[in-house]
Design goal:
Blueprint lengths: L10 H11 L17 H8 L8 H12 L2 H6 L5 E3 L5 E4 L2 H32 L11 H10 L11 H16 L7 E2 L10 E5 L4 E10 L2 E6 L4 E5 L3 E3 L1
Antiparallel strand pairs: 1-2, 3-8, 4-5, 4-8, 5-6, 6-7
Helix pairs in contact: 1-3
GO molecular function: RNA strand annealing activity; RNA strand-exchange activity
GO cellular component, one term: cytosol
Protein name: RNA chaperone ProQ
């Protein structure tokens, strides 16, 4: 029965595995040690029979390790590069330190830009808060309506004007003749003086238009209304 090999694919897992295999060279926390130039070939040779790590994954993980801020800070003049067994093999030169410092600065700039972009996206995704309703807004609306020019009649005022006209017509009806007869449509003509039943008592008015069974009448108070011929009376 063949045992299944648990292959390592994540760079973090591979570095932890290298720190376990070569503790004098790699570590996962604390101050890093500058690595021997060409150490990849040494690792590949040591792990040639190890099926847990492929060369491709190993190369990627090693690149992440040497580009980490912790490692770049360790590359300083006066430090020694080490091999897999922790043995010093070469001193860090000034150009190596300069390159490490430049790489560290560029990496920090990229990280700051990514963080700023992330904050911007999060801010754009946040739902806008509803503006609190100001107290007294109803009073303000009523005040605004009260400030409308007096020359313009609102729709709400129209029924009031009509009601006043009907009341006036009702008062006029009290003096209307009592000897009234229901008019026949054929008897009516435009301009004729008639009495119109639009309430409890007939009201005086003038025929202004005849349309089939409807008769349009203008009352004495100026109000125009359309009624059936059965509601029109003549004396």
């Amino acid at each position: 029965m063949t045992n299944e090999v648990n292959k390592l694919t994540q760079s973090k897992e591979i570095i932890a595995y290298l720190a376990e295999k070569f503790p004098a060279c790699f570590n996962v926390e604390g101050e890093a040690k500058p690595l021997k130039i060409g150490i990849f070939e040494d690792i590949a040779a040591r792990l040639a029979d190890d099926e847990r790590v492929s060369k491709t994954r190993l190369r990627t993980a090693l690149r992440h390790y040497t580009n980490s801020w912790r490692y770049l800070r360790a590359v300083k003049v006066g430090s020694q590069r080490v091999d897999l067994d922790g043995q010093a093999v070469a001193a860090i030169e000034q150009e190596h330190q300069d390159h490490a410092e430049q790489s560290l600065a560029e990496s920090k700039e990229r990280a700051a830009a990514r963080a700023a972009e992330k904050r911007k996206q999060q801010k754009q995704q946040q739902p806008r808060k509803a503006q609190p309703r100001e107290s007294g807004s109803g009073d303000n609306a009523r005040k605004a309506r009260a400030k409308k020019p007096a020359g313009k009649t609102s729709r709400a005022a129209a029924p009031t004007a009509s009601s006043k006209a009907l009341k006036q017509a009702s008062r006029d009806a009290r003096s209307a003749p009592s000897n009234l007869q229901q008019a026949e449509l054929t008897q009516l003509q435009v301009g004729q003086q008639v009495q119109v039943k639009a309430g409890k008592a007939p009201m005086p008015g003038t025929v202004t238009e005849i349309d089939k069974d409807d008769v349009q009448v203008q009352l004495s108070n100026g109000l125009t209304m359309k009624v059936k011929a059965s509601n029109v009376f003549v004396s």
